[in-house]
Amino acid sequence: MKNSAIRSVLIGLINPKSPQNVGSVLRAAGCYDADAIYFTGSRYARARAHITDTKNRALTIPVEQRDDILTGLAKDMKKVAVELVEGATPLPEFSHPENALYLFGPEDGTIPQSLLDRCDEVVYVPTKGCMNLAATVNVLLYDRMAKSSHTRYGDQIIRNNRDTNNKTVVIKK
Fold first, then answer.
1. Distance CA 168, CA 96 (A)
2. What is the three-state SS of 43-94?
3. Contact 89, 121 (CB under 8 A)
4. % of the chain residues with pLDDT over 90
């Protein structure tokens, strides 16, 4: 299991507009063991009452509004922007830092250049077209988990995490 003294995973959302997408980001944060979600701007703050957090992750994962998303971070926290911009590193070639704030732009815009310039790394997910905010967060966090030496696999993981109505097993032929 995660020991927060060993690593910290933070999600930073720049002026998100959709409560549905932020709800899905919360679910991803819970599935992939992120510690907190920070957001800027006022659009989500107004729409927050309509969030679709189907697993009630907001009860265990802090969601905090910030004026400057990059201030107040631990000194060893790497700032990683995830954006479709020229010169970015493709996600399959990226090595995730132990402590990272992953920064995502708004659904209808991009991360401002002034924030990109303050990041340690900029990565992108190679796709045909662009994904929405929640899909991008899921892919990034999955990639981090898949590349981690801390990830555990096996049937016990499945039993602990699947829906209570799912008791299906693979029958070997």
1. 34
2. HHHHHHHHCCCCCCHHHCCCEEECCCCCCCCCCCCEEEEECCCCCCEEHHHC
3. yes
4. 55
Q: Name the residue with tokens 């096996």.
A: 154
pTM of the model: 0.84
Higher pLDDT, 79 or 16: 79
Compute the average pLDDT of residues 6-31: 88
Q: Exposed (0-12), middle (13-18) or buried (19+): which is 38, by Cβ within 10 Å?
A: buried
Tokens 């905010």 locate to 133
Tokens describing residue 111 = 């991360």
So what's the pLDDT on residue 1? 35
SS3 content of the chain, % helix, strand, coil (to 5): 30, 15, 50
